[in-house]
Amino acid sequence: MHSIQAKGAMMSAQNDLAAINQKILADGESLPLVQLKDGSKVQTGTVATMLRNIALYNAGERGDIERQLEAAIPTVAKVGLFDLFPPEEWISGSNQGRRLVGTLAAQYLALPVAEEPLVDA
User: Fold this and answer.
1) Which of 120, 62, 48 is nearest to 91 (CA)?
2) Residue 37 contacts residue 5 (beta carbons within 8 Å)
3) CA quadruple 27, 54, 13, 40: dihedral, nearest 10
4) What span, in angstroms and rounded, lies between the C-alpha atoms of 46 and 101?
5) Cα distances (Å, whole numbers) of residue 26 to 21, 23, 30, 45, 89
6) Where are the beta strands (DSSP E) in 16-98?
């Protein structure tokens, strides 16, 4: 029963991510869900949408954009983005959107996060 609930939650998250990722597509287009070699499935278009959402966050949008960025973290972690560019690298620097993604990724991956203000003085 527990695995059925987990599978349902994962499918719901994938459906949410598919809807979020529609924002980068032309009308009538859709992005596929693909199966990785380990058997897990991920929603394509997530990195592109995340980059767009970082730009929107940097332009001052909050709320739903923050939720959408957080929703992308498990997928981009699964495909290895944070192995290539670790959360600490995202957190360093002055780009507020990158810092948020790095902080969310560190939390998701249960990494310690340095206490730094998100706004430079």
Assistant:
1) 120
2) no
3) 100
4) 13
5) 11, 8, 9, 13, 32
6) 33-35, 41-43
SS3 for 114?
coil
Distance, CA of 56 to CA of 30 (rounded, Å): 22
- Going residue by residue through the chain, which has 121 residues, state the pLDDT in tens, using 9 for 90 and above: 444 444 445 456 667 888 898 888 899 888 888 998 999 899 899 999 999 999 999 999 999 999 999 999 999 999 999 999 999 999 998 999 999 999 999 999 987 665 555 554 4
Beta bridge partners of 66: none
**82 token code pair:** 């944070």
